[in-house]
């Protein structure tokens, strides 16, 4: 993985529009693909240069669906979803954070986010590092680790719209990952996610703002819209948070495309007026970046 220049350097484009496509996921994969493709087109018409899709958007978020809907990303003929994303990125000349999708690789299933550049090429793939296993009696019980294998790499990708760090949903709860991205010069962390009705209300906005404030960078999340008929009810509320923890834009739980402007100069401004990096007391505590020890 590339080592980012540190301190922060402004990327070529400093102001651009981001779109968060909070789409309604059905059990019909083709319909999901059509819907996503229409939302991407709409985002581009509104001037977006970066489009983010939700966690598990071509497939219902349900353990018995992941294997059925999974595609082999190394065999593009067998991956209608990646073909659509690649074509959309290329034909519109934009960067797409392709939400997350169930991926087959050598008999293993991953919850994977693919990132496409304006040339339509797959720039990176992030496999969810922290699988979501939860058991709150009487409320929610879900065990991603029954079906998925966890990824073992952070993902930083240099794009035309800045240096982007990727996490998937539960990955947002782990501040160490975001701190690593900050250390590597990331401008924005994108978390496709699908929080639920038990943890969403209390935590979804809180963790996004916390990751943004701790690291003085942008955080974007994108969720599927709420579908109360499935076994897992999604919280929704796709959001963009700025580097001082301010909510720039957010949605409700219905299907919608949220568009907002990102201005990276706010990162510099925030870090200048509140220089957390200089104030850090690494003589008392030290963040150990294991990737520096084992590059
Ligand atoms: O961490 C949470 O509370 C929710 C995470 C989640 O829904 C997921 O990772 O899919």
TrEMBL record:
UniProt keyword Hydrolase present: yes
GO cellular component terms, A-Z: mitochondrion
Pfam families listed in its UniProt record: CN_hydrolase (PF00795)
GO molecular function, one term: omega-amidase activity
Lineage: superkingdom: Eukaryota
Cited PROSITE patterns: CN_HYDROLASE
SUPFAM superfamilies on file: Carbon-nitrogen hydrolase (SSF56317)
One annotated GO biological process: oxaloacetate metabolic process
Ranges of residues in domain CN hydrolase: 16-264
Keywords annotated in UniProt: Hydrolase
Protein name, entry field: Omega-amidase chloroplastic isoform X1
Organism of provenance: Prunus yedoensis var. nudiflora
């Amino acid at each position: 993985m590339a080592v980012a220049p540190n301190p922060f350097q402004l990327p070529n484009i400093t102001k651009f529009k981001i779109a968060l496509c909070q789409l309604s996921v059905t059990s019909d994969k083709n319909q999901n693909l059509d819907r996503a493709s229409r939302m991407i087109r709409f985002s581009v018409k509104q001037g977006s240069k970066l489009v983010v899709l939700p966690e598990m958007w071509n497939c219902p978020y349900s353990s018995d669906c992941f294997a059925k809907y999974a595609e082999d990303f190394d065999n593009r003929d067998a991956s209608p979803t990646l073909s659509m994303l690649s074509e959309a990125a290329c034909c519109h000349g934009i960067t797409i954070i392709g939400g997350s999708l169930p991926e087959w690789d050598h008999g293993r299933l991953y919850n994977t986010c693919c990132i496409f550049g304006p040339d339509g090429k797959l720039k990176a793939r992030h496999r969810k590092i922290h699988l979501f296993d939860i058991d709150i009696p009487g409320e929610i019980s879900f065990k991603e680790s029954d079906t998925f294998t966890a990824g073992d790499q952070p993902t930083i990708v240099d794009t035309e719209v800045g240096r982007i760090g990727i996490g998937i949903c539960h990955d947002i709860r782990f501040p160490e990952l975001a701190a690593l991205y900050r250390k590597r010069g990331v401008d924005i962390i994108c978390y496709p996610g699908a929080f639920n009705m038990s943890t969403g209300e209390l935590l979804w906005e809180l963790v996004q703002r916390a990751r943004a404030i701790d690291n003085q960078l942008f955080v974007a999340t994108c969720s599927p819209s709420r579908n109360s008929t499935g076994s897992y009810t999604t919280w929704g509320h796709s959001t963009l948070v700025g580097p001082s923890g301010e909510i720039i834009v957010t949605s409700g739980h219905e299907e919608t495309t949220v568009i907002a402007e990102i201005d990276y100069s706010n990162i510099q401004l925030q870090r200048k007026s509140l220089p957390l990096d200089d104030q850090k007391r690494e003589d008392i505590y030290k963040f150990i970046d294991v990737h520096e020890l084992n590059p």
